[in-house]
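Subject: Sanity check before I submit

Could someone independently write out the structure tokens for this chain? I want to compare against mine line by line before I put it in a report. The sequence has 273 residues.
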Amino acid sequence: MDNNLITPFFEYAFMRRALAACLILSLSGTLLGVFITLKRMTLVGDAVSHAVLPGIAAAFFLFGFAVLPMAMGGIFAGIIVAVLAVLLIRFSSLKTDAALAVIYLSSLAIGVVLISLGGTSVDLSHFLVGDILAVDDTSLILMSLTAVITVFVLAVFYRSFIIQSFDDGQKNTTIEMLFYALLIINLISSFFVFGTLMGLGIILLPAITARCLSNDIDTILPLSVMIAVVSSVIGLEISYHFEVPAGACIVLIAGISCFFAVFYEMLSKKRIC
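---
Independent answer below. Compare away.
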């Protein structure tokens, strides 16, 4: 193997932390992403990813760039917005897509204003697109805890998640609440690496790619994780050698893989996705 490919991970601690963060997110976030796609909730995921920003921004405004307060603020904001979304959809004339658009655009605007009012040297782009090479040990601990919780819950309630993904008539409020809770904490975990705008990239794109390559859930789950890991490693390598943003490179590689998978599905005439 070319030493130039592995040297960055041996010589630089920030590259090792970035790789560790990607591997953790590839496990927890991507597994959840499979169920998001199965439930056809990608738009909901996008809305929630923007919805956590006001809570994170408010915590940043009060406590500075502190991981734990920002995570708690994001969770609180995510819960409020989830409740607000349900109220808008059920008790107003707005359709689901319109209600979600109102929520995520308003949330993004509120978050940007709060960050700007903070008056610190932290660049707004850090919140919007993240900085994977600046991941610290506290963020890694938070991501690891999120991964453990996600894998445990998915393993324990695996059958229930499968049933609700394929049978709209089998709605279980407890499982739905667990699903939204996992979605919120994984989006916050992803935020510290990919920011608000690209946080869903590592969660959804590998899952969509795997779905275009197989219709067997037991194959899709490990395949999506493998695609996320490979995309992360390639993206980090490109970022290091060509000095371009790491998060964007990882999401771009995952997106390219998704396009190839879609073309494969089209050429093979398999209606999987």
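---
OP: Matches mine. For the report I'm noting this point. Residues 39 and 165 are 5 Å apart (CA to CA).
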